Amino acid sequence: TQNSSGDDQLHLDIDCDNAVFRAIREAGVFSIAASEETPEEVDVSPKTTKEDGPLYSLGFDPLDGSSIIDANFSVGSIFGIWPGKGLLGRTGREQVASVVSLYGPRTTLIIALPSKSRDGDTQSDITFEVTLVKDRSHWEVSRPEVILKPAKKVFAPGNLRATNDNAKYDALVKHWISDRYTLRYSGGMVPDVYHMFAKSGGVFSNVSSEKAKAKLRLLYEVAAMGLLVECAGGVTTHEFEDKSVLDFAVDDLDRRMGVCFGSKDEVQKYKDFMFSK
Predict the structure, then answer these.
(1) How much is the pTM?
(2) How buried is residue 184: exposed, middle or buried, by Cβ count under 10 Å (0-12/13-18/19+)?
(3) Fewest CB within 10 A of the end CB: N or C in the chain?
């Protein structure tokens, strides 16, 4: 089948989407939700609101990597959480938290909490990891803080077909290869970006061209993942504009863009190649 954006959907995509929507409604703390499989603002408000309890809005990708699941690769889910009701017009900077789950040999969550979402005036942004343990009955903090070091020669170059008609991207990829960077790329955004968190650095890119259009959605993938990267001390940028992905507004629920995420020095190298005149 296809969703309303014209993208092919597997039965597993739909099953995961339905499962998340059920959990959202049962949680009783969300007012609006939209997903890659259901790209519209869906009212999920609880029938009875908890007294004085805040409500949130959620943008999510229920199953990132469904195209590589047949090879038994790790896959995951992406969640961005905004305060209040509504997602249109919001920026990633407004998120109160974001979460990415990874399903592989371990089941883990990596969670970003900006300083505004933490108790105390002196708390800083943080990214941390929890792991499902004890026969899948408990979540245990496995990494109290995830930090991306300024530099690490590991690269994950998405949408490589764009190098065919994007000369700057072609030159950048050739630089990574000639400078003996380690390639770590599976074709799934969650495992590829998660690898940076596991190894404390690296660079992930997904660049478009005239013949190879951008595929990553701002609301369902980019904003949430961008918050994780920046709260871990990394840097994000739009593919063609020197601007954090967290500062772009969701003016369309299906808005797509190319990006670069990662260690500060590695993203600067991306900018040196891609933004040069």
Answers:
(1) 0.94
(2) middle
(3) C
